Amino acid sequence: MKNRYKLTVIILFCIVIGSCKKVIDLNLKNASPQLVIEGNLTDELKPQFVSITRSVAIDSTNKFPPVTGAAVNLIDYNGTSYKLTERAPGNYYSPSLLGKHNQKYTLQVNLNGKTYTAVSTMPDKVSIDSVALSVQYFGTQTTKTVIIFYQDPLNVSNQYRFVLTINGVQVKQVFARNDYLNNGRAVQQLLYEDDIKLKSGDQVDIEMQCIDPTIYNYWYTFSLQQANDFSSTTPTNPITNFDDPNVLGYFSAHTTEHKNIIIP
Amino acid sequence: MHKLLPFILILLLSVLLMPGAYAQKQYTINGTIKDAATGETLIGATVRLQELQQNAAATNAYGFFSLTAPEGDYTLVISYIGYDTINQPIKLNNNTQVNILLTSGNTLKEVSINGNTRKNENVESPQMGLTRLDLRQVNNVPVIFGEKDVLKTIQLLPGVKSIGDGNSGFYVRGGGSDQNLILLDEAVVYNASHLFGFFSTFNSDAIKDVSLYKGGMPAQYGGRLSSVLDIKMLDGNAKDFTLQGGIGLISSRIKVEGPIVKDKGSFMISARRTYADLFLKLSTDTTTRGSSLYFYDINAKANYHIDNKNTIYLSGYLGKDVLGIKNNFGTNWGNQTATLRLNHIFNSKLFLNTSLIYSDYNFMVQSFGSNNDFKVTSKIRDFNLKEDFEYFFSDNTLHFGVNATHHTISPGNITSSATSEVNPQTIQSRNGIESSAYVSDEWQPASRLKFLYGVRLSAFALIGPGNFNTYSADDQLLTSKNYGSGDVVKSYIIPEPRFSVSYELNDQNSLKASYNRNTQNIHLISNSTASSPSDLYVMSSNNIKPSISDQVALGYFKNSANNQYEFSSEIYYKRLQNQIDYKNGAQLIANQDVESQLVYGQGRAYGLELFFKKRYGKLNGWIGYTLSKTENQFDAVNNGNYFPATQDRTHDMSIVAIYKLSGRWTLSGTFIYGTGNAVTYPHGKYSVGGLTTLYYSERNGDRLPPYSRLDLGATLEGKPHKRFHSSWTFGLYNVYNRKNPYTITFRDDPNDASRTQAVKTSLFGRIPSVTYNFTY
Asked: ipTM value of the model?
């Protein structure tokens, strides 16, 4: 919200002054490759997926080296351990599993003698009521934005993540929301992004995830990094829920629901 | 230590017994010095007895002076830069009151940037780290959009750094932007900028005096760690009605002043507004047409000289910024201040000023969405009572007084309609009482040695009503307690010693040293690297300790060519304790428990400032250079290692030159160069959630590219008419069009999505400006 009006002022000034953006060459330092573990457990019956890769230098291409030979285990609320098999380098799959609401899950990764553990509790499911499109006119420009409707439960603290995919391409903007300001209300969530402009005929997939508070913190701090305007905070890495704070990535047990629309 | 004791006792006794130390009878001359044409009191005018070079006095903030000397016949010499000096014979055999009127002199010869009015006051006075601006010269310094701006001008001095383009916030000797005490006629101004920092809230037309203390703050000032910017408004022409104004590209201003009762009372009102949004009205689109983007401010002052011993002043400020997109959202914020002051002269030696001050800063943002309307308001309100005494002895000047402020901070109230999806919320207000008592003495025990020493006792009490949570060191809730109205939740008392000394090697050279401690109880928590009107203020509390700064400074000062040239070099070291930062991923918006989101640490700043100035002549101006380092250390950040503060700038240089061409033209230019601010760049990248993400390893481990800029300006004085005077000011900002970085961001290369590129955003290219000024 704040981003939008600052953006407006800046656009106004830029039009007047005509300066603005330029690509530059920076000689950036390169940190050593860091371990990245990404684990997701949903309430869909399917093999659950964990990916382990490493980070690369900033001036290299986006080919992230997979980490092979790790021992990955998913432990459910009963203590039952499910072993994940590496079907492709860095990609580990469990047997077909269904994540249960309000239950705690643990992910354990054993690599080179070190163990990394993360815990996540899958919350209760909040469903999508409906999806709509908001059209805004600003000068001669038309902006189409997806709106999602849902009812936030009053008695619980809820956290959400929304993922937008347009014509098969995931939108970069991360939408992490909690119910601090709108607990118990019928919510209209505007999913504003300026990454991919929506046009008529576009096929949009909207995913609604209900996430736990630690994972909300992860995506929230992730989205702060993305705020590329002059109200941006000092950038830091998103707060992982792995016990080793140097691990990049997360383990999230969340509910999921999809809705598909075609932009009119 | 005990060997020094008799020496210390003698020093103390000599201060107390000073008045009676001479065998001869002592008499006092006192009075007020004013401008003969307008009746404005003159601040810092020098009053000397020619025969006793050592005895000199300067007029205080209200134009009052007091000089004590042995009985005899003297020549009284009164001087002030820009005015003709007066020599008046005086027979001192009684306490005498002398009121002086000075006439504006030949300004060409003594046009100066800096209003140091004792010719070599910068060498003589023990006061270090003080710069006073001459408002007549602020006019000639070119600034962006042609808006004369006091805050932008002080950023051209060594030791003072700007946050960056488009921001009138500033850092003094490495201190944070909230560590500057900005006073307008003694009222604290919380947000000193308009439109996110593009303009400052001070209309130069209404200002009489600007003093900036970077260090060595005398004990009468307190409440902020790094600097005091003391701005005094004009009183108003007591003899004649005048009208002054200007019309510029972005904004216009007007000032009206005149007598209420001729020579007894006067008033001044000035106002300013931008019309940057007028071009929005030209749009064909209704939303754009109905949108707003403007600010205005109004300064008003009235004074009345009740009798020889009493004068009353009433001043006020009202300013507001409005930004809005029709039917979508709106935001506005502003300051309001009002000050009532009474000067009382008890006798020829004792002067008292009583001030009653009200200050209010408020911020509002509202959204008009059909189902998610809401309105957030937040405010800070102060009520302040000050008593300041000045007691003038023959060798000492004693300042003492008390000060009490009641603060109310209402961080955020959310109101919304019943159909809105946003819940209304009221975050508890907080109240605190900040009080202090101080005593400060200016003492000259020998002709070459001067001391300025004192102590300020600062106390702060956080009071109820409210529910107060106490958090542990790792932000876990420990206790929660309810307090009634006026109950003390937590209090702090900290003595702040202040000490400066100057030793004159000769008339033109001196050495100075100072030490001062300052504390601060109002803290700014900002979730961003740039300042914003929604930044949050919190007071010291059961969780937040007062922040403390200790600064030592040493300096060498030299004037030459009959005080035409001024040179100073100062080195300083500052240690900061109880600094506040927010933890990673902190939730600051509408959070009742904002104190649970904070981490604490310390800082240190040190540097060397070099300053060379030519005070008058056809060509005048200054060069300033600062070499400095500012670092912070927080256990929770950067593995507890010291890291550069965002405002750390290794090199900072400014050159200001003003050249009076013959005829009606004056040319001016400024050049600045500085190392870039510290930033956090990514040092790697990885993939999560289907997205390429940046990896950060070192807080503030990198630098923005260096900042440099050249501005040129020219003023053409209009032909002289009887009553009407006009001038044109032309300016060119950023002459060689350097795109200084405002921010650097990273994105996927649009031509090759597998690569990352850095994008620099700059705000201002080359900008011309024209302003028409008039005086009637």
From this structure: 0.88
